[in-house]
Design a protein that fits this description.
The chain folds into two domains: about 5-15 and about 80-205, Rossmann fold, CATH 3.40.50.1000; about 20-75. It has ten helices and six strands. It has helices spanning about 20-25, 30, 45-55, 60-75, 85-90, 105-115, 135-145, 160-170, 180-185, 195-205; strands spanning about 5-10, 95-100, 125, 150-155, 170-175, 190-195. The protein has a six-stranded parallel β-sheet with strand order 3-2-1-4-5-6. Helix 5 runs parallel beside helix 10.
């Protein structure tokens, strides 16, 4: 079957969680013993640089990620899609299959999809991926999905996503409306979309012509 599947990151790509996520992380800084961080003015930094500057030890990350997944799930009803996301998803869903691969929890992702009438558009969902384990998750997903699809594309908003895709051998289109800035993303990937209209064109150009 000559058909592509497009996998989306969740936080910062589909879901506008930047400000809420930054507040949540800083809210518990004292409790877990790391420094509060000015996320808004450091959008050129990678996730590893942020972890280092905030004083989080790498051995603490799995516990912190589990905690913040649970906290995010409690607030999932307030999460909204970025402007144009619903239109984009509905527009490309007839041209390719859609999926999600995210470090966030299944509960949060599925609540978001239902609340925003997007739950019928995604045929594949993989959640609870390790913060710095996305390359391994992508490699496993790639092996599984390319038995059914001719092409796989990932859409993400971070330098971390680009690094993971490069290691896994997966094509990526970056979006600049999430965590990392356009300039930071362009240093690692020349395929950067600044709005959903541009992203739609880039996706349709990248998938097999038979579907476009």
């Amino acid at each position: 079957m000559n058909r592509a599947i497009v996998l989306f990151d969740f936080d910062g790509t589909l879901a506008d969680t930047f400000e809420a996520g930054a507040r949540l992380i800083n809210e518990f800084a004292v409790k877990f013993g790391y420094r509060q961080f000015d996320f808004a003015n450091n959008k050129d930094l990678s996730a590893r640089q942020i972890v280092k500057r905030s004083g989080v030890k790498f051995w603490q990350i799995p516990r912190l990620v589990r905690f913040f997944r649970k906290e995010s799930a409690k607030r999932a009803d307030s999460i909204k899609p970025f402007v144009g996301i619903n239109h984009l998803i509905k527009g490309i869903s007839s041209k390719c299959d859609l999926g999600i691969l995210s470090t966030n929890s299944e509960e949060t992702v599925k609540k978001f999809l239902v609340n925003n009438q997007l739950d019928n558009f995604f045929s594949f969902i993989k959640t609870d991926v390790a913060l710095f384990g996305k390359n391994r998750a992508l490699l496993r997903v790639k092996r599984r999905l390319l038995k059914r699809y001719t092409h796989l594309i990932y859409i993400g908003d971070e330098i971390r996503d680009i690094e993971a895709c490069r290691k896994a051998g997966v094509d990526i289109i970056s979006v600049s409306w999430g965590y990392n800035s356009h300039e930071a993303l362009m240093m690692h990937n020349h395929n950067v979309a600044d709005d959903t209209e541009q992203l739609t064109k880039m996706i349709l150009k990248a998938i097999p012509q038979q579907n476009a």
